[in-house]
Design goal:
Length: 283
Protein backbone atom coordinates (compact mmCIF):
# COMPACT_ATOMS: atom_id res chain seq x y z
CA UNK A 1 0.00 0.00 0.00
CA UNK A 2 1.48 3.35 -1.02
CA UNK A 3 0.51 6.63 0.56
CA UNK A 4 1.60 10.26 0.84
CA UNK A 5 0.81 13.37 2.82
CA UNK A 6 -0.95 16.44 1.51
CA UNK A 7 1.35 19.31 2.45
CA UNK A 8 -1.54 21.66 3.23
CA UNK A 9 -3.68 19.36 5.36
CA UNK A 10 -0.88 17.21 6.73
CA UNK A 11 -3.15 14.25 6.31
CA UNK A 12 -2.77 10.85 4.75
CA UNK A 13 -5.37 9.64 2.30
CA UNK A 14 -5.36 5.88 1.95
CA UNK A 15 -7.20 4.04 -0.80
CA UNK A 16 -7.94 0.74 0.86
CA UNK A 17 -5.94 -2.27 -0.28
CA UNK A 18 -4.90 -0.68 -3.57
CA UNK A 19 -1.50 0.73 -4.36
CA UNK A 20 -1.69 2.73 -7.60
CA UNK A 21 -2.69 5.98 -5.91
CA UNK A 22 0.64 7.80 -6.28
CA UNK A 23 1.06 7.02 -9.96
CA UNK A 24 -2.51 8.01 -10.68
CA UNK A 25 -2.17 11.17 -8.64
CA UNK A 26 0.43 12.69 -10.93
CA UNK A 27 -1.66 11.98 -14.01
CA UNK A 28 -4.81 13.39 -12.41
CA UNK A 29 -2.99 16.57 -11.48
CA UNK A 30 -1.52 16.96 -14.95
CA UNK A 31 -4.88 16.60 -16.63
CA UNK A 32 -6.85 18.49 -13.94
CA UNK A 33 -9.14 15.52 -13.64
CA UNK A 34 -11.23 14.65 -10.62
CA UNK A 35 -12.22 11.39 -9.07
CA UNK A 36 -16.00 11.79 -9.02
CA UNK A 37 -17.08 9.78 -12.06
CA UNK A 38 -18.37 6.71 -10.34
CA UNK A 39 -22.05 6.00 -9.84
CA UNK A 40 -23.78 4.73 -6.74
CA UNK A 41 -25.71 1.51 -6.98
CA UNK A 42 -29.17 1.51 -5.40
CA UNK A 43 -29.73 -0.83 -2.48
CA UNK A 44 -31.98 -3.81 -2.91
CA UNK A 45 -34.61 -3.96 -0.21
CA UNK A 46 -35.59 -7.16 1.55
CA UNK A 47 -38.62 -7.14 3.83
CA UNK A 48 -38.71 -10.70 5.16
CA UNK A 49 -37.47 -14.25 4.70
CA UNK A 50 -39.75 -14.76 1.70
CA UNK A 51 -37.80 -12.14 -0.24
CA UNK A 52 -34.28 -13.11 0.82
CA UNK A 53 -33.67 -15.34 -2.20
CA UNK A 54 -33.40 -18.31 0.16
CA UNK A 55 -35.30 -21.45 -0.74
CA UNK A 56 -37.55 -23.22 1.72
CA UNK A 57 -35.02 -26.04 1.83
CA UNK A 58 -32.31 -23.61 2.91
CA UNK A 59 -34.60 -21.97 5.46
CA UNK A 60 -35.49 -25.35 6.93
CA UNK A 61 -31.81 -26.30 7.22
CA UNK A 62 -30.96 -23.00 8.89
CA UNK A 63 -33.78 -23.38 11.39
CA UNK A 64 -32.94 -27.01 12.11
CA UNK A 65 -29.28 -26.15 12.72
CA UNK A 66 -30.14 -23.65 15.45
CA UNK A 67 -33.73 -22.63 15.94
CA UNK A 68 -32.83 -20.25 18.77
CA UNK A 69 -30.75 -18.04 16.46
CA UNK A 70 -32.87 -18.51 13.33
CA UNK A 71 -34.30 -14.98 13.25
CA UNK A 72 -30.93 -13.40 14.01
CA UNK A 73 -29.20 -15.43 11.30
CA UNK A 74 -31.76 -14.33 8.72
CA UNK A 75 -31.43 -10.72 9.85
CA UNK A 76 -27.65 -10.98 9.47
CA UNK A 77 -28.09 -12.46 5.99
CA UNK A 78 -30.42 -9.64 4.99
CA UNK A 79 -28.04 -7.02 6.35
CA UNK A 80 -25.03 -8.48 4.54
CA UNK A 81 -26.89 -8.81 1.23
CA UNK A 82 -27.91 -5.16 1.39
CA UNK A 83 -24.61 -3.79 2.71
CA UNK A 84 -22.33 -5.70 0.32
CA UNK A 85 -24.80 -5.54 -2.60
CA UNK A 86 -24.68 -9.32 -3.03
CA UNK A 87 -25.58 -10.16 -6.61
CA UNK A 88 -28.43 -12.58 -7.28
CA UNK A 89 -25.94 -15.06 -8.72
CA UNK A 90 -24.05 -15.16 -5.44
CA UNK A 91 -27.26 -15.26 -3.40
CA UNK A 92 -28.17 -18.42 -5.28
CA UNK A 93 -24.81 -19.95 -4.38
CA UNK A 94 -25.32 -19.05 -0.72
CA UNK A 95 -28.75 -20.65 -0.93
CA UNK A 96 -27.32 -23.81 -2.50
CA UNK A 97 -24.69 -24.17 0.20
CA UNK A 98 -27.14 -23.43 3.02
CA UNK A 99 -29.62 -25.96 1.61
CA UNK A 100 -26.81 -28.53 1.49
CA UNK A 101 -26.21 -28.07 5.21
CA UNK A 102 -23.51 -25.41 5.48
CA UNK A 103 -23.87 -23.20 8.55
CA UNK A 104 -25.35 -19.82 7.59
CA UNK A 105 -23.14 -17.89 10.05
CA UNK A 106 -20.10 -19.64 8.57
CA UNK A 107 -21.23 -18.74 5.05
CA UNK A 108 -21.64 -15.09 6.04
CA UNK A 109 -18.19 -15.00 7.62
CA UNK A 110 -16.67 -16.65 4.55
CA UNK A 111 -18.50 -14.31 2.19
CA UNK A 112 -17.45 -11.08 3.87
CA UNK A 113 -13.86 -12.27 4.23
CA UNK A 114 -13.73 -13.18 0.54
CA UNK A 115 -15.46 -9.95 -0.43
CA UNK A 116 -12.79 -7.88 1.31
CA UNK A 117 -10.11 -9.96 -0.45
CA UNK A 118 -11.72 -9.87 -3.91
CA UNK A 119 -12.18 -13.61 -3.59
CA UNK A 120 -14.21 -15.76 -5.96
CA UNK A 121 -17.52 -17.54 -5.64
CA UNK A 122 -15.86 -20.94 -5.91
CA UNK A 123 -13.90 -20.23 -2.72
CA UNK A 124 -17.09 -20.02 -0.66
CA UNK A 125 -17.68 -23.75 -0.68
CA UNK A 126 -14.04 -24.53 0.10
CA UNK A 127 -13.98 -22.22 3.11
CA UNK A 128 -17.29 -23.63 4.37
CA UNK A 129 -15.90 -27.14 3.95
CA UNK A 130 -12.76 -26.31 5.93
CA UNK A 131 -14.92 -24.88 8.68
CA UNK A 132 -17.13 -27.98 8.75
CA UNK A 133 -13.98 -30.03 9.40
CA UNK A 134 -13.50 -28.15 12.65
CA UNK A 135 -10.79 -25.75 11.52
CA UNK A 136 -10.94 -22.35 13.21
CA UNK A 137 -11.39 -19.19 11.15
CA UNK A 138 -7.94 -17.82 11.93
CA UNK A 139 -6.33 -20.93 10.44
CA UNK A 140 -8.69 -20.94 7.45
CA UNK A 141 -7.92 -17.29 6.69
CA UNK A 142 -4.19 -17.84 7.07
CA UNK A 143 -4.37 -20.76 4.64
CA UNK A 144 -6.33 -18.66 2.16
CA UNK A 145 -3.79 -15.84 2.27
CA UNK A 146 -0.89 -18.26 1.91
CA UNK A 147 -2.45 -19.83 -1.19
CA UNK A 148 -3.55 -16.59 -2.87
CA UNK A 149 -1.02 -14.02 -3.98
CA UNK A 150 -1.41 -10.57 -2.49
CA UNK A 151 -2.48 -7.90 -4.96
CA UNK A 152 0.44 -6.19 -6.68
CA UNK A 153 -0.46 -2.98 -8.55
CA UNK A 154 0.42 -2.88 -12.19
CA UNK A 155 3.43 -0.79 -13.22
CA UNK A 156 1.88 1.54 -15.77
CA UNK A 157 3.76 3.25 -18.53
CA UNK A 158 3.18 6.98 -18.10
CA UNK A 159 1.64 7.47 -21.53
CA UNK A 160 -0.59 4.39 -21.11
CA UNK A 161 -2.05 5.61 -17.84
CA UNK A 162 -2.44 9.12 -19.18
CA UNK A 163 -4.33 7.78 -22.19
CA UNK A 164 -6.88 6.00 -20.00
CA UNK A 165 -7.25 8.95 -17.64
CA UNK A 166 -7.90 11.33 -20.53
CA UNK A 167 -11.15 9.48 -21.19
CA UNK A 168 -13.96 11.54 -19.57
CA UNK A 169 -15.91 8.34 -18.82
CA UNK A 170 -13.17 6.93 -16.59
CA UNK A 171 -12.06 7.98 -13.13
CA UNK A 172 -9.07 6.90 -11.08
CA UNK A 173 -11.27 4.40 -9.22
CA UNK A 174 -12.10 2.73 -12.53
CA UNK A 175 -8.42 2.27 -13.32
CA UNK A 176 -7.64 0.78 -9.93
CA UNK A 177 -10.70 -1.48 -9.89
CA UNK A 178 -9.81 -2.76 -13.37
CA UNK A 179 -6.24 -3.37 -12.19
CA UNK A 180 -7.49 -5.39 -9.22
CA UNK A 181 -10.01 -7.44 -11.22
CA UNK A 182 -7.34 -8.14 -13.81
CA UNK A 183 -4.92 -9.35 -11.14
CA UNK A 184 -7.50 -11.66 -9.56
CA UNK A 185 -9.07 -13.04 -12.74
CA UNK A 186 -6.16 -13.03 -15.18
CA UNK A 187 -8.24 -11.06 -17.68
CA UNK A 188 -6.43 -8.27 -19.50
CA UNK A 189 -7.01 -4.91 -17.84
CA UNK A 190 -7.49 -3.28 -21.22
CA UNK A 191 -10.28 -5.73 -22.04
CA UNK A 192 -12.04 -5.00 -18.76
CA UNK A 193 -11.93 -1.25 -19.34
CA UNK A 194 -13.17 -1.68 -22.90
CA UNK A 195 -16.00 -3.88 -21.64
CA UNK A 196 -17.03 -1.16 -19.21
CA UNK A 197 -16.86 1.56 -21.85
CA UNK A 198 -18.14 -0.19 -24.97
CA UNK A 199 -20.75 -2.43 -23.36
CA UNK A 200 -21.64 0.22 -20.77
CA UNK A 201 -21.38 -2.34 -17.96
CA UNK A 202 -21.00 -1.56 -14.27
CA UNK A 203 -18.12 -2.97 -12.26
CA UNK A 204 -20.65 -5.08 -10.39
CA UNK A 205 -21.76 -6.70 -13.64
CA UNK A 206 -18.18 -7.28 -14.74
CA UNK A 207 -17.10 -8.64 -11.35
CA UNK A 208 -20.08 -11.00 -11.27
CA UNK A 209 -19.26 -12.33 -14.73
CA UNK A 210 -15.77 -13.12 -13.39
CA UNK A 211 -17.23 -14.78 -10.24
CA UNK A 212 -15.52 -12.14 -8.08
CA UNK A 213 -17.62 -11.33 -5.03
CA UNK A 214 -16.59 -7.69 -4.63
CA UNK A 215 -18.45 -5.62 -7.20
CA UNK A 216 -17.86 -2.21 -5.62
CA UNK A 217 -18.39 0.71 -7.97
CA UNK A 218 -15.92 2.92 -6.11
CA UNK A 219 -13.10 2.47 -3.63
CA UNK A 220 -13.35 3.21 0.10
CA UNK A 221 -11.00 5.83 1.47
CA UNK A 222 -9.90 6.99 4.88
CA UNK A 223 -7.92 9.95 6.09
CA UNK A 224 -5.21 9.77 8.72
CA UNK A 225 -3.59 12.87 10.17
CA UNK A 226 0.11 13.22 10.79
CA UNK A 227 -0.70 13.62 14.48
CA UNK A 228 -2.49 10.26 14.49
CA UNK A 229 0.47 8.57 12.87
CA UNK A 230 2.90 10.10 15.33
CA UNK A 231 0.70 9.01 18.23
CA UNK A 232 0.95 5.32 17.37
CA UNK A 233 4.38 5.00 15.76
CA UNK A 234 7.02 3.31 17.91
CA UNK A 235 10.50 3.72 16.53
CA UNK A 236 11.90 0.35 15.55
CA UNK A 237 8.74 -1.44 16.65
CA UNK A 238 5.67 -0.03 14.89
CA UNK A 239 6.14 1.96 11.69
CA UNK A 240 3.96 4.51 9.86
CA UNK A 241 3.18 1.80 7.31
CA UNK A 242 1.93 -0.50 10.06
CA UNK A 243 -0.20 2.27 11.56
CA UNK A 244 -1.77 3.00 8.18
CA UNK A 245 -2.43 -0.71 7.62
CA UNK A 246 -4.08 -0.94 11.05
CA UNK A 247 -6.39 1.97 10.18
CA UNK A 248 -7.31 0.24 6.93
CA UNK A 249 -8.06 -3.05 8.69
CA UNK A 250 -10.11 -1.25 11.34
CA UNK A 251 -12.26 0.44 8.73
CA UNK A 252 -12.88 -2.82 6.89
CA UNK A 253 -13.95 -4.55 10.10
CA UNK A 254 -15.88 -1.70 11.66
CA UNK A 255 -13.49 -1.53 14.62
CA UNK A 256 -11.70 1.41 16.20
CA UNK A 257 -8.13 2.01 14.99
CA UNK A 258 -6.99 2.11 18.62
CA UNK A 259 -8.25 -1.42 19.31
CA UNK A 260 -6.66 -2.85 16.17
CA UNK A 261 -3.34 -1.11 16.81
CA UNK A 262 -3.28 -2.41 20.39
CA UNK A 263 -3.85 -5.96 19.18
CA UNK A 264 -1.22 -5.71 16.45
CA UNK A 265 1.31 -4.26 18.87
CA UNK A 266 0.60 -7.22 21.16
CA UNK A 267 1.47 -9.58 18.32
CA UNK A 268 -2.03 -10.57 17.21
CA UNK A 269 -2.16 -11.48 13.52
CA UNK A 270 -4.47 -9.78 11.03
CA UNK A 271 -6.21 -13.11 10.50
CA UNK A 272 -6.88 -13.48 14.23
CA UNK A 273 -8.30 -9.96 14.35
CA UNK A 274 -10.51 -10.63 11.33
CA UNK A 275 -11.67 -14.00 12.64
CA UNK A 276 -12.72 -12.47 15.97
CA UNK A 277 -14.49 -9.51 14.34
CA UNK A 278 -16.45 -11.61 11.85
CA UNK A 279 -17.32 -14.24 14.44
CA UNK A 280 -18.63 -11.57 16.81
CA UNK A 281 -20.62 -10.07 13.96
CA UNK A 282 -22.27 -13.19 12.58
CA UNK A 283 -22.36 -15.75 15.42
Amino acid sequence: MKYKFNKMTKSLVVILALGTVLQLGSVLAKNALTDQKTTVNTNKTFQNAATLSLSQTALDQIKEADGATYARNLANYESMVKTLQVDEKFQKELDRLAAAGSSLPDLLIAYEFLYQNYGKMQDLEQLALERSKGNDWETIMEQYHSSHKAFVPRAFEADELEQWMSNPKLGSDDIMIADTLSFVSGAAMEDLLKEKLEANKSWQEISTSLDILNGSLSLPRLQITKEQLNKYVQKGKFTEQQVAEAFVLAQKLGLTPESVIAKKKAGTSDEAIMAKAYTDKYN
